[in-house]
Amino acid sequence: MILTKAQYDEIAQCLVSVPPTRQSLRKLKQRFPSQSQATLLSIFSQEYQKHIKRTHAKHHTSEAIESYYQRYLNGVGENGAAPVLLELANEVDYAPSLMARIILERFLQEHEEAPPSKSVINSMLRDPSQIPDGVLANQVYQCIVNDCCYGPLVDCIKHAIGHEHEVLLRDLLLEKNLSFLDEDQLRARGYDKTPDFILQVPVAVEGHIIHWIESKASFGDECSHHAYLHDQFWSYWNSSEKESLILWLKSQSLVKFVIVGI
Amino acid sequence: MAAVLESLLREELSVAVAVRWIARSAQSSEDDPREAAALSSLRPLRKEFVPFLLNFLREQSSRVLPQGPPTPAKAPGSSTGLPGRSGGPPRGGRGARNQLFPPIEASSATAADAPSARRGGRRRGPGPARERGRGPGGLEEGVSGECLPWAGGRRPRSSGSPSSPSLARSDPPNLSNLEEFPPVGSVPPGSAGTKPSRRINPTPVSEERSLSKPKTCFTSPPISCVPSSQPSVLDTSPWGHGIPSGCRSLQEEREMLRKERSKQLQQSPTPACPTLEPGSPHPSRTGHLTAEPADPTRVSSRHRLELVALVYSSCIAENLVPNLFLELFFVLQLLTARRMVAAKDSDLEPTPGAVDSLESPLFQSVHDCVFFAVQVLEHQFHVLSHLDKGTLKLLAENERLLCFSPALQGRLRAAYEGSVAKVSLAMPPSAQAVSFQPETDNRANFSSDRAFHTFKKQRDVFYEVLREWEDRHEEPGWDFEKGLGSRIRAMMGQLSAACSHSHFVRLFQKQLLQGERRQFAVVLLSLRLLAKFLGFVAFLPYRGPEPPPTRELQDSILSLRSQVPPVLDVRALLQQGLRARRAVLTVPWLVEFLSLADHIVPMLDYYRSIFTLLLHLHRSLVLSKESEGEMCFLNKLLLLAVLGWLFQIPTVPEDLFFLEEGQLDVFEVDTVASEHGLDSMPVVDQQLLYTCCPYIGELRKLLASWVSGSSGRSGGLVRKITPTTTTGLGAQPPQTTQGLQAQLAQAFFHNQPPSLRRTVEFVAERIGSNCVKHIKATLVAELVRQAESLLQEQLVTQGQEGGDPAQLLEILCSQLCPHGAQALTQGREFCQKKSPGAVRALLPEETPAAVLSSAENIAVSLATEKACAWLSANITALIRREVKAAVSRTLRAQGPEPAARGERRGCSRACEHHAPLPSHLISEIKDVLSLAVGPRDPEEGVAPEYLEQLLGQLGQMLRCRQFLCPPAEQHLAKCSVELASLLVADQIPILGPPAQHQLERGQARRLLLMLLSLWKDDFQVPVPLQLLLRPRNVALLADTRPREWDLLLFLLRELVEKGLMRRMEIEACLGSLHETQWPGDFSEELATLFNLFLAEPHVPEHQLRACELVQPNRGTVLAQS
Question: Quick check: B765 and B866 in contact, CB under 8 A?
């Protein structure tokens, strides 16, 4: 199914200042019943990430961190079972998982001798039962399972989508008898940045010569498209003459885009 | 320039005046004022005369020398794309020497093949290697012929005309250039007032010319197309802009050649001569040719030839040509020309009335060539007489020479007989003494026995004294008078008879002079070696493949480099040397030093001034001048030879030799400061000359090849010009079978069309390369597989740690690298198997079987050589690298998730991969978790059926695995455990009537059993079951009222039952739960659970059920127990 730019913009418009929670997604689904949940989630995630990128810094000032931490302490002091951290995140318009990280870091700074390493924090976020404070563990877990745009679970979902589509694409290529080299093979040949597949024999699609294909697990809006090209491919192909073509791949209700080198 | 030559031919000018004019000497009083006037108007073109003349001769001889060995060219590569055409204008020929390469006849087929064939030939051995390795690694390596730096579009800056005859890279007259050779009647720009010169070459230029730009004829592009890598200094010339920029590459050039060739084919009324087809040997390429007999009576336009020979000889005599020996080589080529290549009739028939002008070819037959050559040789007798004995012999025995000039032959014979200049590659024996001279040192030469005896005694004393002096004179405190005085006086006292004096003098002279020479040679050769090394080191940092591509870059490099002081102030040393009159010592090593300069060096003011000094010196070394205090003849000859060589070095700009006179005059060097410098001593002999300039030996080879009847192509010719290392002077290495094989291969190719050689080389190159790839994909890959399994074993025996990766790698490599030796065997087999077929496929069907078989064999051996060379050098490193990668891969994979190593089961072949996607399931389970954890709206919840369905889907997906990646599976495993905890704690909100928001007991148990089954059978990653008993999860139970422990107990028992967790593990987990602070009653209940679990160590299933059955009501189990 093709999603027009106007439709995308309309959906994006509804996502301004909406917390990235299950409830928000449900409302969105009610508002746009014709779109699949995966499409909506993808757009939501994309738009919300843009929002976070813009506002990220203000949540990381020492004053902000301190005030969040105090509010958290006060909150759990009153009622440890209440969703203190989640509500705090929603209130200040920040991703719950990221808020959980801020508070966890701050907590560990206070309770541990050495400042916590990033890997320790990540590990605790992945498995909150490692967090020494039971109340905080619950709060963090609540944030993570309720966040539909950030957090280890969301990351895993994105990764899984990426992998699934790579497999899908590979199947399609095999089905079409197209000979290709995949990322692993390319890496073995010493390429550092590689697209998912390089076609060993280029094919022509609608008048374009396709040399390579990259599938992306996220929604291919303009911005991310450019970012991908910039970060990953131009440096690899080292040729600004090459254009890219976005192919939409719709499978099992997931909309995704594919960049193909031409 | 043609005008000058014509004037000479018409005898409007005398040769002497012309040469004086060319040499830029002052006007002589006896010069005819009319002549002087005529020439003065041509003054701006003066310096172009010599290049013009040289090119003219080359061009004129092009039909005579196609089969001959190519004249050594300064830049063989520059002839690329110059298929000379018989009688036609040189196809944009760039240099005088271009015409000397066997110009291929109009036969288009060979024309297209020619350039690369020549390149190939030169690249691989017998070639006019006026090239010199300039790669940083290889001082002696030949420059690859492919793309040499001097390229098309390069023109001397002074004018649009070609001015440098410096061999192949100089420009031949561009006969299609309308400015240079305007049509009759037009006035050439820049020469107003002079007689209009005329286009010289009678051969019609292709019709295409009309399409071309007025100044750049169609013949020029192929030349201009040669990638110009010369500095863009020359861009300032009008030519710099006239060059079409469209074509830059060899490919394009070839393409043009192909087009040109097809045009020629179309235009040719008759098909090309079959003998010129590439498939059949060109006559010129056959090894033996019957030479056309040369007859002095059949020489046409004698007078004209005499005049040109005189002008040419005068130019040589005045050192107006860059390299004397190159000209001699050319002349000897003419002398030994075998036959005239047939040209078009129109070319052969002299135009009536134009016999003496340049309208008709200068050399119309072999007779003309030989006549001309003999004329020049007569003028150069003096030089010839100083060549080595072998060359003299060959010259004296040359029947053509005898036939054309018995007088010269007689003089040469006399010179030969008087010559002692035997030159051998081996150094003279290092023994100090003069060997016994039987001719002089015998009794017959002495008046009496006594005198002879005395002489012998004197001789012994003399050597004794000499040896002692040599051994001890540097010792401190040694005194000549004290040590030797009396013995010398005694020796001298025995001199009585006059004849004894003469013998002693001879001994003395020989010893001290032939000794001095020896010492000089040793010093000179050492200096040259040292200088070469110094030059190598000094210019190494700047060494690049070619000059900078842009003017800006070049300018910036120049400005930068000019800031750098020279590492060795060679200019001062040169000036000192010249002043002290020891140029003969200084210049040869300086030449070695400069020969290693990079392309920028000659543009730097400092070095440019050195070159100017050297040019000045070169000009001043007129061999015919022999007066008191003059430099010795052979000294001069050596300097001329080394300087001539230097001027041909690719890095030396071609226009340098033909500097404006003004620039020359600036550098007058006072050379009379010291009257008795080394220069006037006869320190150079032929041995040294030939040692320093081995290419002079090519003259002999050329003459010898004439005698043997072979065309001499495989016989050597100027090959390496730089035997500057003393190692080269040792005995020649014995001819090995391999060397002989290589020579045979060369000879084989020599007799075959060039395409065959290209084919064989191409096949060898590709098969060799494929062989390496094949070895990588088979042998190396197999070794890597072995490495992986060895590593696995190692890891199993040593436990998960495995040990130090570096150590592991070493162990593996030591086991596996020896297998690399198989690579050579396999490589040989591969080449043996693959090459013949490829050669067969590429060569014409009609190739004779013997030729085909030889070609196949050569391809096999070349491919094997290439592959084995690479493999033997790299196989160990390659295996090591691959094994290292495999080790790190394996260790990484094993890292934190040991199970990832395990063999992963895939879905069955019948699976159609319709299971839900992992991402979807994670997302769904995440939603359930978030719903359970809250916050949630009152109406939110899940249907029990949905949960069952979800777990069912999870099972499907885990069994399909098509889209599953390890991280997703790990998260799913973790989520499933969380889900179990929530089920046990009855925390999942269920959709339904408000009163019943909890799961039915049976439903919960079913769901748990489903999970247990998934954990046991379907997950392939470790499931973090211990999470179930983490305080956070257990605490979920604390929130429920009334607390329900039965599901947890059920779950724990099932875990043990199914072998998912060991009792000990669970006990440990339960034990550690005590460390957490709980509400008092919860602690108690927990302790009871613990005891209960411990109390039933091996509860059979029915008992467990019974146990549950005794608890009719939820929440009463613990109370009752």
Answer: yes
